[in-house]
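Table S2 (text version). Query chain:
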Amino acid sequence: MFRQPHLPPLENRAASRGQARPLAMTLAMTFAMAVAVAISAAPGAAQAQNTLSVATWGGAYGQSQEIAFFEPFAKETGTVIATEIYDGSLAKLKGMIDGSGTPVDVVDVSSSALGTLCKGGLLETIEVSSLGAGPDGGSVEEDFLTGALSDCGVASVAWSTAVAFDRQAFGKGEPTEISALLDTARFPGKRALPKNPRYTLELALLADGVPPESVYSELGTEAGADRAFAALDKIKDHVVLWDKAGQPITWLLDQKVVMAAGYSGRIFRAAVGDRHIGVLWDGQIYEVDAWAIPKTSSNKKEAMRFISFATSPARLAEQAQLIAYGPMRKSAVQLVGKHPIINVEMQEFLPTAPENFKKALKFDDSWWQQNGEALSTRFAAWASQIEAAQAAREAERKAKEAAKQEPVSKAAP
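Corresponding structure-token output:
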């Protein structure tokens, strides 16, 4: 039967300003009610003769899929969707599909997992012709964004790492280009960056003027790696490193930093709760999620019908109106309007909106797997130096404060 996934409340990233919690509760409650109504309203669900098992993520993302894909597909086709929530890990996914007894017919996977599973021979080949024609009878290949279609998967949405900033910190003009990340003269203040060479080194090169299409070829050379670390050294006294996804946006909202490289979905939730938060889409680094069919699926034909349905422009647009992930079809982006609950124009917050996507870089996980060891070692040493210097400055600050608070002894008569 059609199984409702867990419905945890959306995360609060702006509690310090009292903004995000009411919004998060409203969104989560509305999602839950919409899913409940959709399930109970699906005509003939109890009598459905076909069930499709779909493995996907949970949370707000899974809720948006329930509303935009699963319930409408069941209503239109009579095929009931049974969802299997997983944590996104490759090991968990392999365990779900590597065996003849698997119940999973369709999987929602990251681009890195898609590549690994496809190379391992665990996924079916996708026939692009099964996706139907593009708008006005045009080519479906031309309608999907570059890299969306692969041998074993069809990308549905993109999410990204982008730089958010505090509008209040820059009274003389807001940053409009990624180069602002390195410009502490015009845009003074702390920057929150990932404590990880991935994303951080790409951002450094993008901010230093390397075009997106050349970032990985540049980073793969000794001179390019030196250039990335030299760029980071320019701002080393202004960098705060984060290792938990919620930290950069929390620090930005608490005004501990003026710029923060963070995940686009979290930036959206913060920005709609606090309009002082701006987004620098120039130089964003995006990743995609894709639909794929395990070779062990017992319902491959219906699985392909679902993927075609779920990646149609109208379905992708409906999902993007519920959650700030960018559709991977150009025609779908054009259809996206306001969020049905909070009345916000969603195109402003979509990674794949034309204005936001002009200088986007597609993250290359396979490149990092092949080239990342030496860079990771070098970055770890750099990060240790940054944190040691910050700890020394903090100790010095506390010592000065303590000295000011010590009572002044009177001189002996």
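Notes on Table S2: Residues 1-48 have pLDDT under 50 and may be disordered. The domain at 15-158+288-359 is CATH 3.40.190.10 (D-Maltodextrin-Binding Protein; domain 2).
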